[in-house]
Structures are given as C-alpha cells and as structure tokens.
Automatic annotation (TrEMBL):
Keyword Coiled coil: yes
Ranges in coiled-coil conformation: 225-259
Protein name: DUF480 domain-containing protein
Keyword Coiled coil part of the UniProt annotation: yes
Region Disordered: start-end pairs: 196-218
Species of the source: Planctopirus hydrillae
Compositional bias per record (Low complexity), positions renumbered to this chain: 196-205
Pfam families assigned to the protein according to its UniProt record, in alphabetical order: DUF480 (PF04337)
Length: 262
C-alpha cells in the first residue's frame, strides 16, 4: 500500500465508544469481508462481543447509531445503501483518510479494541488481520505509529516487557497510565557505614583519615531480583501471547458459526 500521500484526517482523539465502533468496523472488514459493510445490528454485536475486547461493553443500538453518525461527520465512516435498499450498512474510510500501512492499521485496531499490550501479545493479535512475521517487523511498524503520536510506549521498544497503547484518549478521559518499567523506578541508595575505630596513641586519639566509608549493601541480592523480574516479564509475555492465540481461535470459531448460521 502506498503511504506516500499526505494524511487527510488529523487523528488526535476519539471517545471510548468511537474507538470501539471504529475498531470493530476495521476488524470485521478484514476478518469477515463477506459480511462487510456491517449492518447496525452486526456492528452492535461486534462491539459487545466478549472475545478480543477490553473492557467488554454492552452498547445499545441507539448509542452505536449515534457514534456511527459522529464518525460519519468526522469523515471516518460512511453509510452505504445496499442494492435491495432495505438495510443501511456502515464502512470505515481509514485507509482513504490516513496514510497508514496494513500492519499499522491492524496494530492500531487491536490497541483501540483492547488498550495497552506487551509486544508479544500485540503481534499475535494483530496478525489475525495482517501477517507480522517477526518482532523486528512489529517494532518497525510501531515506530511509524509512535512518530505520528498515535500510540505511546512506556520505554524503548527494544526493552523486555515494554507496553504500548494507543494515544487517542479524549481530553479529560480517565484511563490507566502505562506502568513504569521496573528498572526505571527510582531506587533509594541503601548503604551500610563501617565506622572506623580511632586507636589511642600516647593518650591521644588518632583519627582514621578514611572516616566512615559507605559500602553498597545487598548488591548480589539486587542483581538476583533484577534477573527474576526479567524472567517474570518474559513468562508474562509468553502467557499473554498464548492467551491471544486462544482468543484469535475463539474469534475465528465464532465467525465460522455465524457464517454457518449457527
């Protein structure tokens, strides 16, 4: 996809409902193209599904219709009349409005639907919509989104355990900030002082020129704790990736059931 043209829509902030509705339209347009554009009922169902949504919502049709109208006024969504003219359908125009690659669109969609994630789970989930073959490719795509300030991270992308999130929260919206990485937290200096003993020579006190010397305490223990924290973060990342794979399989199964009319 050519991403050389200038961005038309200044994507800066979206409300919680706008993010969920827009993310649903993008996701379903890729994963279930035969059902896309979506009806209002299908859009509501997609917004409120339990798989690959965080948090799970319970939006009513009237609320979703209002959000669709808001996104239409912003130029991100269009109402499509079917050939039969009986049911209005809805599609997004993110590809047309934004200079964005397919992997970046999939990554941004996952962040809109689930919020902050570690890189391993994000790659697994985004790969449902667009193949991302390696962590290096993921980081390349993320850098492009970071440069445009559409996402944020709590540390360098090469850091183990780093989390990313979209950066499209509405002004004043209450949301949980990204966690600070363990070794970036301020650690108070812990030292033990070895008091010098001043020997007496000829009835006069002789001071040790070195005085009290601060000696770092528990250096080995701190190092071991750091290694344990790194191991813990790695296990968390692997577990999250497995959970994302299970979620992707559930989504695929649900889509298959809908296609079969189950």
């Amino acid at each position: 996809m050519d991403t050389s043209h200038t961005e038309v829509f200044p994507l800066k902030s979206l409300s919680r409902k706008q993010r969920r509705v827009l993310g649903t339209l993008i996701e379903k347009g890729i994963t279930t193209p035969e059902q896309y554009p979506l009806t209002l009922k299908a859009t509501v169902t997609g917004c409120n599904q339990k798989n690959n949504r965080e948090p799970v919502s319970n939006y009513e049709e009237d609320a979703v219709y209002q959000v669709l109208d808001e996104l239409r006024e912003m130029g991100l969504v269009a109402f499509i009349q079917t050939e039969t003219g009986r049911t209005e359908r809805y599609r997004h125009y993110c590809r047309q409005k934004l200079s964005i690659s397919e992997p970046q669109l999939a990554i941004l969609t996952e962040l809109l639907l689930r919020g902050r994630q570690q890189l391993g789970e994000l790659r697994t989930r985004a790969s449902r919509m667009c193949a991302i073959d390696s962590q290096d490719e993921l980081k390349t795509q993320l850098k492009g989104l970071l440069d445009r300030q559409w996402i944020r991270a709590n540390g360098p992308l090469d850091r183990r355990g780093v989390e990313v999130d979209h950066n499209l929260y509405a002004p004043g919206e209450n949301h949980e900030p990204l966690a600070q990485l363990a070794d970036e937290l301020p650690v108070p200096a812990i030292t033990n002082k070895v008091e010098s003993v001043s020997p007496s020579v000829g009835g006069h006190s002789v001071s040790d020129k070195s005085g009290s010397q601060p000696v770092p305490a528990a250096v080995a223990t701190n190092s071991a704790i750091h290694r344990l924290e790194e191991s813990h973060e790695e296990m968390k990342s692997r577990l999250s990736a497995l959970e994302a794979q299970v979620s992707a399989l559930k989504d695929a199964l649900d889509d298959l059931r809908r296609q079969l009319g189950a």
